[in-house]
Amino acid sequence: MRAVIQRVASSEVRVNHESIGKIGYGMNVLLGIKSDDTEADMDYIINKIVNLRIFDDSDGKMNLSILDSAGELLLVSQFTLYGDCRKGRRPGFTRSGSVAEAQKKYDLFVKKIREQPVKKVETGIFQAEMEVSIINDGPVTLLLDSEKQF
């Protein structure tokens, strides 16, 4: 499982030009799920998301988590995080797995992250064509991988 985490001043996701998720100060998370991801992979990524200290304390030092800072979270599924660009010019997505399996894993991930004491959790729509607006804060962008490849 992979996640791109961005600290944001605000973020919004739209489907068919209609806002379906919107947050203020907090974190935008793009989530990639691969075919052999397990619940342990989910738990690892969720633990990182809610505990990463990427928000500034009163001294301006990145020392607070999303929980400490009362930040909000926007979660957007993005299968292209497993795009393989090593051969040719068009990415391959075989590691992303089947849509049905990924949907189940995404739904479970959403359920689990909503069980965390995050102030507000909004989501996109799985497999929808989405427009994501992000106003970065910092910018602060981090990559997470449950296999710890980076």
From TrEMBL:
Q: Which residues form a coiled coil?
A: none
Query: Keyword set for this entry?
Result: Cytoplasm, Hydrolase, RNA-binding, tRNA-binding
In chain numbering, motif Gly-cisPro motif, important for rejection of L-amino acids lies across 138-139
By its UniProt entry, which CDD domains does this protein fall under?
Answer: Dtyr_deacylase (cd00563)
Annotated Gene Ontology cellular component terms: cytoplasm
Q: InterPro entries under this entry?
A: Daa-tRNA_deacyls_DTD, DTD-like_sf
User: Which of the seven top EC classes does this enzyme belong to?
Assistant: hydrolase
Write down the Gene3D superfamilies for this protein, in alphabetical order: D-tyrosyl-tRNA(Tyr) deacylase
According to UniProt, the reaction catalysed is:
glycyl-tRNA(Ala) + H2O = tRNA(Ala) + glycine + H(+); a D-aminoacyl-tRNA + H2O = a tRNA + a D-alpha-amino acid + H(+)
Q: Which Pfam families match?
A: Tyr_Deacylase
Q: Name one GO molecular function term.
A: tRNA binding
Question: What are the EC numbers?
Answer: 3.1.1.96, 3.1.1.-
GO terms under biological process: D-amino acid catabolic process
**Subcellular localization, per the record?**
Cytoplasm
Q: What is known of its domains?
A: A Gly-cisPro motif from one monomer fits into the active site of the other monomer to allow specific chiral rejection of L-amino acids.
What the entry lists under PANTHER family is as follows: D-AMINOACYL-TRNA DEACYLASE 1 (PTHR10472:SF5), D-TYROSYL-TRNA TYR DEACYLASE (PTHR10472)
| Assembly, per entry | Homodimer.
Family according to the record: Belongs to the DTD family.
Query: What this chain does, per the record?
Result: An aminoacyl-tRNA editing enzyme that deacylates mischarged D-aminoacyl-tRNAs. Also deacylates mischarged glycyl-tRNA(Ala), protecting cells against glycine mischarging by AlaRS. Acts via tRNA-based rather than protein-based catalysis; rejects L-amino acids rather than detecting D-amino acids in the active site. By recycling D-aminoacyl-tRNA to D-amino acids and free tRNA molecules, this enzyme counteracts the toxicity associated with the formation of D-aminoacyl-tRNA entities in vivo and helps enforce protein L-homochirality.
Q: What is this protein called?
A: D-aminoacyl-tRNA deacylase
The scientific name of the source species is Acetobacterium paludosum
